[in-house]
Amino acid sequence: MKILIAVDDSRHSERAIAFVSHMRWPAGSRMIVAHVTSPAVPEKPLAGGVDRAQDQLREAGLATERRVAEGDAREQLLALVDRERIDLLVMGSRGHSGVARLMMGSVSSHAVSHAPCSVLVVKETQRR
Amino acid sequence: MKILIGVDDSIHSNAAVDFVRRMTWPRGSQVILLSVVQPLEVYGAVYAPAPAVLETMEDLTRRHQDIASKAERVLQLGLPDTRSRVIVGDPRTVLIEMARAEHADLVVVGSHGRTGLAKLLIGSVASHVVTHAPCSVLVVKMERR
Asked: CA of B107 to nearest chain A CA: how many angstroms apart?
């Protein structure tokens, strides 16, 4: 299985990484950690976040590659899914509350609708 | 991990069950297969259903039980703590309510259900679940290659 994990610098990404780390994936699975930077929103370089994600996955025994793209996160992620022939796209979500749900609409909801592959949206489980 | 899978008799639902079957889940994981029978809305609270309709509901329920038990047998090989439920209602609300009531960690659905427009990129149930589930959601799409 070929898995793409989309990360940004939020704790939502950390949960997505934790979820992936706790699973046992089919033998021969390949993982890619991807981050998309927006040219419109100046941000500090996220190398740290991608590094942390890769470290955490490596500790769980999962070898990863990394891809960093620039542009619209929705478009760039779908382009990566196509180019890398991804089977499963994993991403964190802000979860459930009013404004947060609207925000979530932007990237993960778009991916669920448009990605040709399966999509895992990792949310914070609310009861905890 | 507690996993809730929405099933119907579509190929997308089979793909969802198959995805769960092929994965190795943490030891002690539990699975609930949920098959939702949708009553015809016109026969809701307003009209008393005619005997023919009652029979149809019975048949429908039996068919849903068959679907759920078949998936149950498939998954029990690797996930012994798998059970199935059949509930009458709107699949969208029933899935969310059960995810909440059962404290599910993950809801798994096929990208499209048995009904609905194939040309839509994603079915209404999957789309609703992604937005409203209190936990993580896996939307399984048919393999394209």
From this structure: 10
Residues B100-143 pLDDT 10s: 999 999 999 999 876 666 556 678 888 889 989 999 999 999 87
- Domain spans in chain A, listed from the N-terminal domain onward: 2-122
CA separation for the pair A21, A105 (Å, rounded): 25
pLDDT tens digit sequence for B64-75: 999 999 999 999
Residues of B in contact with A85 (CB under 8 A): 145
Q: What is the pTM of this model?
A: 0.87
We find that the CATH architecture of domain A2-122 is: 3-Layer(aba) Sandwich (3.40)
Bridge partners, A120 (sequence order): A90, B138
Interatomic CA distance for residues A77 and A45, integer angstroms: 18
First-to-final CA distance of chain A: 31
Distance from CA of B103 to the nearest CA of A (A): 8
Minimum CA–CA partner of A26 in chain B: B23
